[in-house]
């Protein structure tokens, strides 16, 4: 049985499982409109997850065939995975911010060998040791047909109301977790009369008990030096100012007092940046920094793929420190090392 929760005011959530993932599930929101139900995110592309989504919609008195539209908070597969199947079943439109739409187009058009070359060059530049790089260099690229993410057919424009008949749902651009992440502000009185301004569908941007991953925006064709952590911190302040009565996140559970959760996360990142400066009293490559940073388990127990994610997160923090003038690259070092200033 699909876990369905009625949040009131024509909003329900369905728990759609993410296979083999400690997060457990994605909360897919079903928002009633005058033209039929609209989904906020769709869940992981897996037969069991699809069945769970379909059963949950039936429990809500509707079905995949009746979906009017799909609004995607960001391109990650636990959010956008089933969008293509929903569109096939119903003819629904799929809306996404242009920056994440560009990532979907790139994922569909970039050959797998290009990704492998890019990833190994990037990790080598970050100071990854040879034993970490060897499997990447030996990997045989293969395309997996059918797994390409669905192209969106509508663009979510920051600050604008989405075309949802009978509802007021405004797009709030919150880059950081991905460059095109959006939160969606339901500008309607809270059905339980909680104090504050409407409700906020927060995707992965603001979660009650998890700090979302902030890495680099990976793009083999763009060498722009972005600052995703800086983007994320700005985006946090933006949603804190909205002061929603309730937050409806894409994982875990709904919560109130967005402002204090925002403060917690801002403090967490400030403390982490300060902690990194202590490590950077000696010059370190991004890889060495990642090895010394605090994770949810010792470095030796972190699996291969998660190490890549950890290095990306270390680099995002280095970018922020460099941008703040608190660290800098050591001239002539190769691979490049960074040191506190
Ligand atoms: Zn995500
Ligand atoms: Zn997620």
Structural commentary:
This protein is an alpha/beta fold and 341 residues long. It has a domain at 4-104 and 146-263: Ribonuclease Z/Hydroxyacylglutathione hydrolase-like (Metallo-beta-lactamase, Chain A, 4-Layer Sandwich), CATH 3.60.15.10. The protein is 36% helix and 16% strand. The protein has ten helices and 13 strands. Strands 1-2-3-4-5-6-7 form a seven-stranded mixed β-sheet. A hairpin with a 6-residue loop joins strand 3 and strand 4. Helix 7 runs antiparallel to helix 8. The radius of gyration is 21 Å and the shape is globular. It starts with a strand and ends with a strand. Residues 76, 78-79, 204, 250-251 line the site of one zinc ion (ZN).
Descriptive keywords:
Metallo-beta-lactamase, Chain A, alpha/beta, globular, 36% helix, 10 helices, seven-stranded mixed β-sheet, 13 strands, four-stranded mixed β-sheet, 341 residues, binds zinc ion
């Amino acid at each position: 049985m699909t876990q369905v929760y009625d949040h009131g005011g024509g909003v329900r959530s369905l728990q759609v499982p993410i296979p083999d993932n400690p997060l457990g599930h994605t909360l897919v929101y079903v928002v009633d409109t005058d033209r039929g139900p609209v989904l906020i995110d769709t869940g992981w592309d897996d037969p069991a997850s699809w069945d769970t989504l379909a059963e949950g919609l039936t429990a809500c008195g509707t079905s995949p065939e009746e979906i009017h539209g799909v609004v995607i908070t960001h391109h990650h597969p636990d959010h956008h995975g089933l969008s293509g199947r929903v569109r096939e079943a119903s003819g629904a439109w799929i809306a996404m911010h242009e920056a994440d739409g560009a990532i979907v187009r790139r994922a569909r058009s970039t050959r797998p060998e290009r990704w492998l070359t890019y990833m190994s060059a990037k990790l080598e530049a970050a100071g990854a040791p040879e034993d970490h790089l060897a499997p990447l260099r030996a990997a045989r690229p293969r395309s997996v047909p059918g797994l390409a993410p669905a192209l969106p057919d509508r663009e979510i424009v920051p600050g604008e109301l989405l075309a949802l008949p009978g509802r007021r749902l405004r797009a709030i651009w919150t880059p950081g977790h991905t460059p095109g992440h959006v939160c969606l502000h339901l500008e309607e009185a809270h059905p339980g009369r909680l104090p504050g301004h409407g409700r906020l569908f927060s995707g992965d941007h603001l979660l009650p008990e998890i700090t979302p991953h902030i890495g680099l925006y990976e793009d083999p064709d763009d060498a722009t030096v972005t600052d995703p952590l800086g983007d994320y911190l700005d985006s946090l302040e933006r949603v804190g100012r909205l002061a929603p009565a309730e937050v409806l996140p894409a994982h875990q559970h709904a919560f109130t007092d967005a402002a204090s959760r925002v403060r917690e996360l801002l403090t967490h990142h400030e403390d982490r940046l300060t902690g990194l400066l202590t490590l950077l009293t000696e010059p370190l490559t991004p890889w060495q920094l990642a090895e010394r940073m605090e994770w949810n388990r010792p470095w030796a127990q972190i699996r291969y793929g998660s190490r890549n994610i950890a290095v990306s997160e270390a680099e995002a923090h280095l970018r922020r420190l460099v941008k703040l003038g608190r660290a800098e690259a050591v001239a002539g070092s190769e691979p490049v090392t960074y040191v506190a200033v």
